[in-house]
Amino acid sequence: MTYNVSNTDFKISSYPGISLLSRTAGIDGTSATTTNLCTVPTGRMVVVVMALVRPTTLTGFVTTATAGIGVAAGEADIFAAVALTGLSSTTVAYAFQQTALTFAVAQSTDVIKLGIDVGYVATTATLTVELIGYLI
After folding, report:
1. What does the alpha-carbon distance between residue 88 and residue 49 come to, in Å, rounded to a whole number?
2. From start to end of the chain, where are the E strands?
3. Which candidate, 42, 58, 44, 48, places its Cα nearest to that of 5?
4. What is the average per-residue pLDDT within 64-85?
């Protein structure tokens, strides 16, 4: 799902207990690689309910990337890898959202990562990812 950055309909404060878990900037969206987003604190677990991916710089854009988020190899066990459809300017954000009744919970010391399977075809594509959820 793509959100307009200026859209005021989405507010984290509408969901008690849910907060920004991490913000990772400077991710090269043209490279098929993994980036660490958050390490679960020892003795805790993390439920990620949403992740926002947004380009902070984008030049020479041709096509978007394909990416997922997770802790296991392949980085797709929290959010399956998808084409970041509509993420073609710096004024929009792609939202990975939990919609199922059962979903992955990151365990103590797990490292939650963004896995870019297919990079942007662009001159430059720098991304920021915000993980939203809660600790248990």
Report:
1. 24
2. 2-4, 19-28, 34-39, 46-59, 66-70, 79-83, 92-97, 111-118, 124-135
3. 58
4. 92
